[in-house]
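Data deposition worksheet. Section B asks for the primary sequence of the deposited chain exactly as it was used as input, without tags or linkers unless they were present during the calculation. Section C holds the resulting structure in token form. Section D is free text for depositor observations; keep each observation to a single sentence. Incomplete worksheets are returned to the depositor.
Section A, Depositor: J.P.
Section B:
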Amino acid sequence: MKIIFIGDIFGRPGRRALKNLLPKIKETFSPDFVVANGENAAHGAGITPKVAEEIFSSGVDVITGGNHSFDKRVIWDEWDKFPFLLRPLNFPEQVPGKGFTVLEKNGFTLGVINLQGRVSLPPTNSPFETLDKIIKEIDADPVLVDFHAEATSEKIAFGYYANGKVSAVLGTHTHVQTNDARILDKRTAYITDVGMCGTIDSVIGLDRDVALKRFLTLLPYGFKVGDGRAKCDFVYIETDNNGKAVKIEPHTIAEED
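Section C:
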């Protein structure tokens, strides 16, 4: 099976890049499924029903989330209307939505799990224990995990913990694509961070001038999404008939000048 996973979609530029570039990605790789992280898709923090519909209409099959998933209040009562919109599974049970899904298309079945790390992020249940509980319930091959976490150490540790239990562990949240994509010894594809879909000349998606003012002065200058030419970071994954990873490749594609 062939899978494309797209890094965090950041604001309007990220959504625009997704719409413009995903057809080229599909033409090149002919994926069976496309998954993307969308926790920053609405104005750089959160997601709305309208934005979710826009991303799905661009050709994404599953949208995963993270610590900013519920930043936009308007999505709270609408979340459950989207069967393939995920938030971290290890959030409290009373939170709207779900943290995993299984979808079928063209005779293929894919399981997707969304989990969040606990280092330098709001407290959640253990992603390690949560994985062990849910993996017993998912009847699908392959199964991939969007592990939304801050610390590279936690991401790497989780990758080794999930090694052999799932087909892929794909890190999100830090918006900078890492160069450690590899297949672990029990045939689980791994990368510490997939990257982002957003403005190139920015600070992880934010307007660079505003970001510099915040760093230089420590004052709470307003949040502003960076503008200009955008890119999409993504990984291409192949699995065999048993759901074991045989290939993982990181890629970046940018809008034309």
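Section D:
Residues 2-254 form a domain with the Purple Acid Phosphatase; chain A, domain 2 fold (CATH 3.60.21.10).
The chain has five helices and 13 strands.
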